[in-house]
Amino acid sequence: MKSKIIMLIVLLISCLNAVAQRLSTSDNIDETTVPVLELDAFLSPPSQTARAAGVSNVTLLNMQNVKELVYNTQPSIYFFGGVVKVFGDKPRNLFTDANSISSLNNSVTLKNNIEIVTVNLDNPNQLNTPINLSQLSEFKNLKYIYFITSFDVSNNAIANLIQGDSEKYMVFYKVQKGDNN
Questions:
Q1: pTM of the complete model
Q2: pLDDT at 9
């Protein structure tokens, strides 16, 4: 019982610290900044204490859905360099790169079932070209935007990359350096 109380206090202090940091930097952050989460941090299993403290069932369902979309084979669309390749019926995943996003609406026709767009960022210079989420507005089931980088990046760098209405999407990123075979 004592350890549960201590864990709740630690969780509460952590939350208050995050809120305080957000408030202290609010002068430097655009109000439309989207919250960006590192993928592994989001997918890490919540402790019993976190569940007791109010991790919602919606969050748990999102965790399960994101894990399935990212790690399990799904019907998918690959759109790179102006070339569309579709694998499977009713694709749920769309893989692309930062340079191709502006062409998605005109090039990809199977939009109805896409739940996640995975965007590869190959070099830090791509962080200087904003991505306007209105370019994804025709993807009616889109819930998640996932950035994969081959270089170190922060939550703020990804958040600053994004423009437009981001309230309807959850945004994640992951740094994947080197050979992943």
A1: 0.74
A2: 53
Q: Which two tokens stand for residue 43?
A: 């997918």
DSSP state of 152: -
What DSSP character marks residue 83? E
pLDDT in tens, 94-137: 999 998 988 888 889 899 999 999 999 999 999 998 998 888 88
Q: Where are the alpha helices (DSSP H) in the chain?
A: 2-24, 39-43, 48-52, 57-71, 104-107, 155-161
Q: Which two tokens stand for residue 162?
A: 């994004």
Residue 2 DSSP symbol: H
Mean of the per-residue pLDDT values for the chain? 79
Task: Work out whether the CA dihedral 88, 137, 109, 126 comes out positive or negative.
Answer: negative
The per-residue DSSP string of 39-74 comes to HHHHHSPPPHHHHHTT--HHHHHHHHHHHHHHHS--
Beta-ladder partners of 132:
163
Where in the chain are the domains?
1-30, 32-175
Rg (CA), the chain: 18
By CB atoms closer than 10 A (0-12, 13-18, 19+), residue 160 is middle
